[in-house]
Design goal:
Layout (H helix, E strand, L loop, with lengths): L20 E11 L2 E13 L5 E11 L5 E14 L4 E8 L3 E10 L2 E11 L6 E11 L2 E10 L5 E10 L1
Antiparallel strand pairs: 1-2, 1-10, 2-3, 3-4, 4-5, 5-6, 6-7, 7-8, 8-9, 9-10
């Protein structure tokens, strides 16, 4: 599906404009404290002309045939676009934590690292993350590295999503 720049796109959001819309596909998860798994996922990036995008994501665990087994992670937040491709991201998760990321966007890529993580007393021990999103052949590819449960920062989830 061809992408067109929206008429009301804030100029500071230009480096992230390619992300606007709905993306869906499958991914993989792994970490030393869990069994490897596969998931389906939908990401939605919207805007209203101000210098930020609203972000929503939902995932569900799938079996070997690609059928949904159960619901998975939910997250929502804001990508705040700053001058010269600088980006702030605020995320809230259904699992009981909130993150603040800082990073850069440009040339079909967004890279972010956590600056702060706040957890509820019932959330797992999670201390930081790194996210890399890229426009590869018109698809959205991403990788998420996580530091949690006493483990150092390392790969956790990755996926390839197509524009809907």
């Amino acid at each position: 599906m061809a992408f067109q720049f929206p008429d009301n796109l804030h100029p500071q959001c230009g480096p992230l404009a390619w992300m606007l819309g709905t993306w869906a596909g499958n991914g993989h998860g792994d970490y030393p404290t869990i069994e490897p798994y596969q998931f389906g996922q939908e990401l939605i990036f919207t805007h209203d002309g101000r210098p930020f995008f609203h972000y929503m994501a939902r995932a569900w665990i799938i079996d070997e045939a690609g059928e949904k087994v159960r619901d998975g992670a939910l997250e929502t937040g804001f990508l705040r676009c700053l001058p010269e491709g600088q980006v702030e991201m605020l995320l809230t998760h259904n699992t009981g934590f909130v993150e603040i990321y800082y990073g850069t966007a440009g040339e079909g890529k967004l890279e972010l690292s956590t600056d702060a993580v706040v957890r509820t007393h019932t959330a797992k021990e999670y201390v930081g993350g790194h996210r890399l999103y890229g426009n590869v052949e018109g698809d959205l590819l991403y990788a998420y590295d996580m530091a949690a449960m006493g483990e150092p920062l390392q790969p956790h989830t990755w996926a390839r999503l197509q524009r809907r």
